[in-house]
Amino acid sequence: MAAESTAVPDTSASATSVSSAAPPTHASVLREPVVSTPSLVADDGPVVFDVDQLNVYYRDFRAVRDVSLQVHQHEITAFIGPSGCGKTTVLRCFNRMNDLIDGCRVTGGLAYHGVDLYDDRVDAVEVRKRIGMVFQKPNPFPKSIYDNVAFGPKINGTKKKGELDDVVESALTRAALWDEVKDRLGKSAMGMSGGQQQRLCIARTIAGDPEVVLMDEPCSALDPIATARIEDLMQELKSDYTIVIVTHNMQQAARVSDRTAFFTAEVHSETDTRTGLLVEYDRTDKIFSNPSDERTENYVTGRFG
Questions:
Q1: Which domain holds residue 121?
Q2: pTM of the predicted model, to two decimals?
């Protein structure tokens, strides 16, 4: 007999209950609002991700070891550290993007509102609907600005033109882009500036109505003015979304994040390979002003990295 599907939490405010008479399918979604259990609640609010002794392997090689941290709702969490320390690898675990890499496997615990994201019964596609991702390099589709933003809602079943129009306008407005593009929605997204393209990618992500937005070095390819606009946008969006970013820019982490995780890498002397590990995770002001670990202090003060 097939195993019953484990539901992925739907935390949207408009969620309604599903009749208990209908058996869940592999892609089923829990429509009831999630209430975090006491063990997953910190003094400063609910925990969205609870990571416990997370390890990531590429076949026999352990790329990341024993990462434990909690990501809190409506906060910006920054991952910092030198190249090769596992920041992006851990970020990609949060919406199971590493599933797409041949030979990659994850061990340990990674719970989303108490649901094990790596349970065999959890549908990775459903996970990515809840947990969107913005990549390092802007990657708009070779379509119009309108069709870029409408792409996800169309796939998810929004077909009526009026409804799509509302979704597109809302997403572009929240991404601080509507006023710049409202008169050229039918134009190709490829003609936009780099900063506009990245904000379009953010609009495309939030048009799918996720709860979490992951950002992998979202400003690394942008100029300082565009970077400032993205940082301002992150601050505006965190009232509606939980945001996790990877950044090499320590000043950016200090400016925008509520909590910061510092990763480093252990170099294996015999193989010259690197295994990433989490050194310290705390409030951002503490990480940058009074870190607990000497390795963190050396990194944030520029002594290495």
A1: 45-300
A2: 0.84
